[in-house]
Write a structure and sequence with these properties.
The chain is α+β, with helices and mostly antiparallel strands and 274 residues long. The protein has seven helices and eleven strands. It has an eight-stranded antiparallel sheet with strand order 4-9-11-10-6-7-5-8, covered by helices on one side. The chain has a three-stranded antiparallel sheet with strand order 1-3-2.
Length: 274
């Protein structure tokens, strides 16, 4: 072994504040090989000069260069990227930034809509904007069948058709029966999508016009008690001299897919009024 200062892998790791596991990974990638390996003990030794190389590797990683890209730089005897490589990395970073900004905006919209729902009074009058929906209408044996229908039939078909749903997501059912029926219910499931698609045997696309006024009411609890909230809503409509002007929507905000306790399920009843 030469007389130059040599550091064992543990000492090098401690001084450079990088784990031994990372150093071994860099070695496997051909990025930072030990300066010497003792043929008898297998101990790995690093030189003082390799401190700067390790720092350069870490700086390039922070700038978004992959380990493979960094290795190519070293193989080409260039420790820093050239202008062309930096321009390419800047463009890649700008693409990632656009995606992150779009994700942040979607998350903000989602968060704000959830806040609005949570702070909404029990009753509120709101405008329901014009939307495009993917719709599926079927007579189901009972309302317990709706969940499996969405998961096993409607969801996969919407995915096959390439449907894109704007965040935070808006899905609801419309009941077409003229009277309450606990079995064989004629139910239409609607989910908002970004654009009209091509109808299939399962999914039909349609544009629902704006609803200028809708009485919106929060229902917290299982679906079998929805009728209690409908009674309250209809009483409110009568007391405030409104008239029902369209089919009610039952909008599902939080349910079995996210909350095990049915007592915490959140549903919004939306009744068009005038």
């Amino acid at each position: 072994m030469s007389n130059k200062t040599k550091l064992k892998i543990g000492e090098f790791s401690k001084l450079m504040q990088v784990t031994v596991k990372t150093l071994r990974h860099y070695e496997l990638k051909g990025l930072l090989l030990p300066d010497e390996v003792d043929e008898w003990t297998g101990y790995r030794y690093y030189s003082i000069d390799q401190m700067q190389k390790l720092q350069t590797i870490r700086d390039l990683q922070r700038l978004g260069f992959s380990l493979d890209e960094i290795r190519d730089l070293y193989e080409g005897d260039s420790f820093t990227p050239d202008v062309r490589q930096m321009d390419a990395k800047i463009k890649e970073t700008e693409r990632q930034l656009k995606k992150l900004i779009a994700r942040r905006n979607q998350l903000l919209e989602w968060r704000d809509s959830r806040k609005q729902i949570k702070t909404m009074e029990k009753f509120s009058i709101q405008t329901l904007p014009e939307i495009i929906v993917a719709s599926h209408r079927e007579v189901i044996p009972d309302y317990a069948a709706l969940g499996p229908l969405c998961v096993n039939v409607i969801g996969p078909e919407m995915q096959r058709l390439g449907c894109k749903c704007p965040p935070p997501g808006y899905c609801f059912t419309i009941e077409h029966d003229k009277e309450y029926t606990p079995t064989n219910a004629d139910v239409e499931y609607c989910e908002q999508v970004e654009a009209m698609g091509t109808d299939s045997a399962i999914i039909k696309f349609k544009r629902l016009p704006e609803v200028p006024q809708a009485l919106c009411m929060k229902h917290i609890g299982p679906y079998e008690r929805l009728y209690e909230s409908f009674i309250e809503a209809f009483r409110y409509i009568d007391e405030h001299n409104y008239k029902i002007s369209g089919q009610p929507r039952t909008c599902y905000i939080d349910g079995a897919w996210n909350q095990k306790d049915p007592e915490k399920w959140l549903t919004i009843i939306q009744i068009p009024i005038e």
